Amino acid sequence: MPDAVHRPPYVPPDPFTPQRDISHRHFRPGDQVVVLKGTAGGELWGSAMTIVVPSWHTPTDEDGWRLRDAKGGARSYLTGHPRYLVHLSRRCPDCLIHLRAMEDYLLPKFPGPQATDLGWYNVTELNQLVHISDHRGGR
Prior knowledge:
By secondary structure, this protein is mainly beta. The chain is built from one helix and nine strands, in the order ββββββαβββ. Strands 1, 2, 3, 4, 5, 6 and 7 form a seven-stranded mixed beta sheet that branches. The chain has a two-stranded antiparallel sheet with strand order 8-9.
């Protein structure tokens, strides 16, 4: 994550991630992934993580993945839904299509050098990563 991050007064909705239909089998333990969170210097940025083991994503009542943040910290391990993740360690067609759609949508809206956090994600008290537009069930 960039050092200084700006939160704009208006955050455009994310029309891609909540609708993304990606299976649990798409990722494997050891895969390097990113959770896209915003823009910085004309590029997308996010949190890079490693897939650890299959898990249950309680907020959505669907299959998820346990993720490890290599930087560690109080929340070194999170559970996220596969639709939030984009491969870093390999170039797969689905992730490239998703990445390109996000670039085409976001980069014109935030073209400057400033790092912008779009605030689409939060982490629950159970270390579950949740997208703000994800209303698919949950407990």
